[in-house]
Design brief:
single chain, 249 residues, alpha/beta, Nitrilase/N-carbamoyl-D-aminoacid amidohydrolase, six-stranded mixed beta sheet, 13 strands, 29% strand, globular
Amino acid sequence: MTALTLAAAQSISTAGDVQANIGRHLAFMRAAAEHSVQLLVFPELSLTGYEPSLAADLAIAPQDTMLAPLREMARELRLTAVVGMPLRLTPESGVSIGALVLGADGSLAVYTKKHLHPGEEAAFVAGQGGAALEWGDDRIALAVCADFSHASHPRQAAEAGATVYAAGVLISEGGYATDSALLQGYAAEHGLLVLMANHGGPSGGWACAGRSAIWATDGSVLAAAPGVGDALVIARRESGQWAGHVAAV
């Protein structure tokens, strides 16, 4: 197997301040590049914070020039970043919870959250998911938060040949034990490397738990942030073996 380095960006979002959050994302991308990270996954709605009441005003089209600094940095660093943003896929469409894949090669791909959390339908429409990322011999399936609460989602990813399941999430203190156990279970059940990028601070009125983590294909913890705050949770595969660590930003 080829070498591969992935990371969860446990970041803190400023509510509604996309420019400030872009600045933080750029700092994370630079820090990740110092650790030779090839794919960096941010939390759900990382560029706006989890702010349903603001989503309609902040939603953009995937090609919006607002993302240009991030796309340019991805190319410069040869790093693919998955960032969270409310999206309008057409001017007439509702707002989706999006994960934008900003490719190291300048490409752009879109994943939209398929399974809304109860109550999100007041601000968002259910999305269509998105294609797995083809990465050498690997297939990296994406998820956004409540997607993984449906066991069919990771199962279908595994059946389609995914080797990695990468989720950008918002998980509160109260939900962390249940949600992390689900993700850990999927790793072992399906033989997937599972990556979970959570918010490192409060967002949308939620006390986010941090503790972003990466689980190996047997369900063991490769690396996990110890709590809240900014962190990079990194997993690296060399000679077929995975190892993980946590780095500061």
